[in-house]
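Friendly challenge for the regulars: who can give me the structure tokens for this chain first? No prize, just bragging rights.
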Amino acid sequence: MRDFSPKNMTLDGASLFVTGATGSFGQAFVKRVLDSYKPRRLVIYSRDELKQYEMQQRFSAHKNYNCLRFMIGDVRDRDRMTMAMRETDIVVHAAALKQVPAAEYNPMECVRTNIDGAENIVRSALDNHVKKVIALSTDKAANPINLYGATKLASDKIFVAANNTSGSIGTRFSVVRYGNVVGSRGSVVPLFMKLKRENAKAIPITDPRMTRFWITITQGVDFVLSSLEMMQGGEIFVPRIPSMKMVEFAEALAPGIPVENIGIRPGEKLHEVMITEDDSRKTYMLEDRFAILPSFAFWEGEHKMPKGAKMVEEGFRYASDTNAEWLDHKGLFEMLRASGYDL
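First reply, four minutes later:
Bragging rights claimed.
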């Protein structure tokens, strides 16, 4: 598995603010920061008091527990967030409504959290003179066909454009975009393993041609940290990760059980796309990731890509069905074990 961990970054003495911190990514991110650094303050900002209580119990014995601050709040509430974000150096924005079918049936709720929430993050960060903001996106934001993807595309545009408005404040905004996370909440892994234990007659697959990118939660956290380390503002960072056919994914987790084609759900793509052909004109490739640069004047001359970065060919497309790197059964099991699954 590719190592995305930061090389020279330190968060010692820094004040961090994490939205959606009680989710799968948020909890893994908080654990990584507490294990590896000594932040001055780490704010857990979310709207679920039960999950916050459970998180307090989980980390109560940690040596760096005293830096944690648990604040109830919603990214829709700008006034609350501005107050909670005071004296913050770094914001990691992970809060989102992300279930595709739920977003299709409840569009305005998704808009209020993912789009209005992004604007509120930007305004609160500028009001508090935050140094860096990095927002989590999704593959579904590239050429979106569902509402969730459309709201995250709008969110990405808001964060990239925010660099134009920071002026003398100097706040820098960047985005990370990656695919399916092995073992995250809502992952198909627990479902497929449960069906195997129950000797199910079939494993449901929405389409036998479907492919997906895969990354572990640890890789995702490290990718955010290393992108935070190298960001200059305005980049959309995309990791170079493997793809796998969902039919092979099911066969690996539940060998011998036939798959059943149940049809694509509303708003679901056949293949994931993380970089479109139109994005290729501003995309650079590094050893372990791509960086889509903004088409704004502030990037010209003022910013420089890391050493070794090369521009991709025009017309380049980074998609799960045409990816050069594929995951076999051995590689999948390695990712699952790294994610804590007992195989």
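The chain has one domain: 15-338. The domain at 15-338 is CATH 3.40.50.720 (Rossmann fold). Your move, everyone else.
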